[in-house]
Amino acid sequence: MLTCPIISIDGTVDWKINAAKLAQYYRTIFLYKPLDLTVYAKWNIKRFNEAKYRRTQHNRVMKYVHRGLYLEAYAYYNRYALEPLIDLLRLIHTPASANYYLVHISHHVPSDERERLEYFAKISTLDEIAEKTSEAGDWFYELVERVQI
Known about the structure:
The protein is mainly alpha-helical and about 150 residues long. It folds into two domains: about 1-30, no CATH class; about 40-145. The protein has helices at about 20-30, 40-55, 60-65, 70-95, 105-110, 110-120, 125-145; strands at about 5, 15-20. The protein has a two-stranded antiparallel ribbon. A hairpin with a 5-residue loop joins β1 (about 5) and β2. It is elongated, with a radius of gyration of 24 Å. The mean pLDDT is about 85.
């Protein structure tokens, strides 16, 4: 009979726990199920619709570009140009973790799309924001056609 050591707070070791019973206990807790994407469909439809809505608001970016307000233009660029692209890439490549935003996205999307996303993330001037906002719109509509929910 195998036993597992249990170390208490005071440092003493208790060898009375049966390893087989402990393994059986953990097998009942950690049940692995096959991935069922239909579970995520409702949330992903909402995320997809939100991304489409946000893309329609790209004029807010341009408003602050024309006013010469970099910080406001940058904030709206992230919200209405960059985030919709990230959401669609997530919906295409990792629908079970579509809400991860940029966490591990370099590992989750193909390198050519990652490099393209990095291109849109690198902005330093108002002119770049204006140029990349319209380019992001073109890519957004390409990605919309690829989304399958």
